[in-house]
UniProtKB/TrEMBL annotation:
Belongs to the universal ribosomal protein uL1 family. Part of the 50S ribosomal subunit. One of its GO terms (cellular component) is large ribosomal subunit. This is Large ribosomal subunit protein uL1. HAMAP family: Ribosomal_uL1_B. One of its GO terms (biological process) is regulation of translation.
Length: 232
């Protein structure tokens, strides 16, 4: 076990590890445990009662956080014709076609956070599958990043749209903002994510859907939430 720092040890003293907190209490505590000198990200980890090895138990989607994530994402758009102008006017940071494929292939260029593509460009973008795929950057219809509505896609991403996706251990990890947001904004972002995840419950999921929920800051300990409160 790695040795934890002084701030982490001090934070542990104010948390009852046996208690399940409601979201308001948990957010107040996570603010107190975020002791780093930088503006820590507050993250939610949701353990689900699904088996992600089965296609009918995948949990994946997107949600626009009411107050964003605290980070402005750089957006790259693959499009052609009038859709390039639409991308520019919507605020995309980079936009183009074949020339950007070459730039990524030849220069190992990754100065962007999200990639959006129109459906008619996916044949071109598909050549980047082995490069973008492992980094989670490949456009996908399920995450709203393969679309002809470029304006909507770019604006939602810039406004704070996040993707949630269950991993192979049945856990969703998703940021809900920064410490500087304050309790109310973090609570509203948390509620928006939980509502989306609950609505995304697969029909094939049996038994208890929400196994555990933990909130934590970048450098702080995890704080357990009462899952039952979200199912009421």
């Amino acid at each position: 076990m790695p040795k934890r720092g002084k701030n982490y040890q001090e934070s542990l003293k104010i948390i009852d590890r046996t208690n399940l907190y409601d979201s308001k209490e948990a957010i107040e505590l996570v603010q107190q445990t975020a002791k780093a000198k930088f503006d820590e990200t507050i993250e939610l980890s949701i353990k689900l009662g699904v088996d992600p090895r089965h296609a009918d138990q995948q949990v994946r989607g997107t949600v626009v956080l009411p107050h964003g994530t605290g980070k402005t994402k750089k957006v790259l758009v693959f499009a052609k014709g009038e859709k390039l102008k639409e991308a520019e006017e919507a605020g995309a940071d980079f936009f183009g076609g074949e020339e950007l494929v070459a730039k990524i292939q030849n220069e190992n260029w990754f100065d962007y956070d999200v990639v959006v593509a129109t459906p008619d460009m996916m044949g071109v973008v598909g050549r980047l599958g082995r490069i973008l795929g492992p980094k989670g950057l490949m456009p996908n219809p399920k995450s709203g990043t393969v679309t002809f509505d470029i304006e909507k896609a770019v604006k939602e991403i810039k406004a704070g749209k996040v993707e949630y996706r269950v991993d192979k251990t049945s856990i969703i990890h998703v940021p809900i903002g920064k410490k500087s947001f304050g309790d109310e904004k973090l609570k509203e972002n948390l509620d928006a994510i939980m509502e989306a995840v609950i609505k995304a419950k697969p029909a094939a999921s049996k038994g208890r859907y929400l196994k555990s929920i933990v909130i934590s800051s970048t450098m702080g300990p995890g704080i357990k939430l009462n899952t039952q409160k979200f199912m009421e």
